[in-house]
Amino acid sequence: MNAITRWTLKWEHGDATIQSLGAMLGPVRFELGRGRSISPLWVAPWDDDAQWPGLMRALRGEWPCLPFGAVHPPIGLPQGFERLDPSDNWNHGYGSNHPWQLVDQTSHMFRLRIDYPDNGEIESLERVIEADPDEPTLDVSLTVRVRREAVLPIALHPTFAVPAEGVEIVGCSHQAIHTYPAPTEPGVSKILPDRAAASLTALPTETGSIDVTRLPLTVATEEILQMAGCQPPFVLRYPASGADVLLDWNAEDLPDALLWISNGGRAQSPWCGRNFALGVEPANSFFDLGRVVVPPAGHPLATRSGLRFLVDQPRTISYRLSVRAM
Fold it and tell me: What is the pLDDT of residues 75-84, one digit of tens each?
């Protein structure tokens, strides 16, 4: 098993670490002034455990997923969903599960690249993480090159810490919230599948509604939601740190935000009931299922099939992670 390499960038307003596996960014520490700082990105509680394959070995922080999504459909899908063959077994894509090469580094910037296998549509991904010299801000870009024209589900995967003292989802303006089409975690998830709601404060369960805007929740659960028409920035508030964390991106490319609420609901290894995290994933995809199912034509998210990539026309997706003191 190859060792994971990590590189750290330090600047006046913080420090950021990126690893070779998946080009995952985290941890990141932002300076808030007056001796205060915040480290908002999550690191899996098993940190780096070589017994786990692919991305699971050292899951953390933020990374790009292309093609995005699971490689097995969930249990309990309603009728009307067409099954697809994902063509490989890499959850969230080859780049999430393999080492990237650091090709350039300066005092404020990392540039990493990964070449995909010869038999696929994707030729390569290039990822640039650049610190703003004047602010606690990281600007990130992903450039995609393909061998042949393709429409591919895509998402970014920022995953944030949920400390015991709590985090508030301020969120973004949006059109609707859609619940996962099947139980996110069978026998564990509380939110009713395949429903629509207007607000994160009133999501349907068998015993009434649940408010997920303040984490951690009081019940163990795992949930995935899709906020359609999310208008960034997406804001998280950390009251104990006195800071808001902002995630900004181009909503024309990635029109929705998937929320992965991991609230101690996965009992199996390596999760072991100890994982508390919030994924806020800008996406152009049908949940994380765009590789394995096609929803019925009448589903409100049926058009979320992915981004179109053209040969000899590299496509760059840019986004920003920043903080502001409250």
Answer: 999 999 999 9
Residue 314 preceded by cis peptide, ω within 30:
no
Strand (E) or helix (H) holding 156: strand 154-156
Q: Please name the residue ranges forming H helices in the chain.
A: 94-97
The band of 132, judged by pLDDT with boundaries at 50, 70 and 90, is: very high
What is this structure's pTM?
A: 0.97
Residues forming beta bridges with residue 282, ordered by sequence position: 257
- How many C-beta atoms surround the C-beta of residue 13 within 10 A? 21
pLDDT bracket for residue 1 (50, 70, 90)? low
Q: Which residue has the tokens 């100890």?
A: 274
Quick one: which of 251, 222, 215, 209 has its CA closest to 234? 251
> Which pLDDT tens digit goes with each residue over 146-156?
999 999 999 99
Instruction: Tell me the two tokens of residue 324.
Output: 């502001």
> Which phi and psi (to 5°) does residue 280 adopt?
-120, 100
- Give the pairing of strands 36-38 and 25-33: antiparallel
Residues 301, 255 contacting (CB under 8 angstroms):
no
pLDDT, tens digit (0-9, with 9 covering 90-100), for 192-228: 999 999 999 999 999 999 999 999 999 999 999 999 9
Q: What is the 3-state secondary structure (H, E, C) of 128-139?
A: EEEECCCCCEEE
Q: Is the dihedral of CA 291, 293, 296, 300 positive or negative?
A: negative
6-325 maps to CATH 2.70.98.10? yes
String of DSSP letters for 77-145: PPTTPEE---SS--TT-HHHHSBPEEEEE-SSEEEEEEEPPTTSSEEEEEEEEEE-TTSSEEEEEEEEE
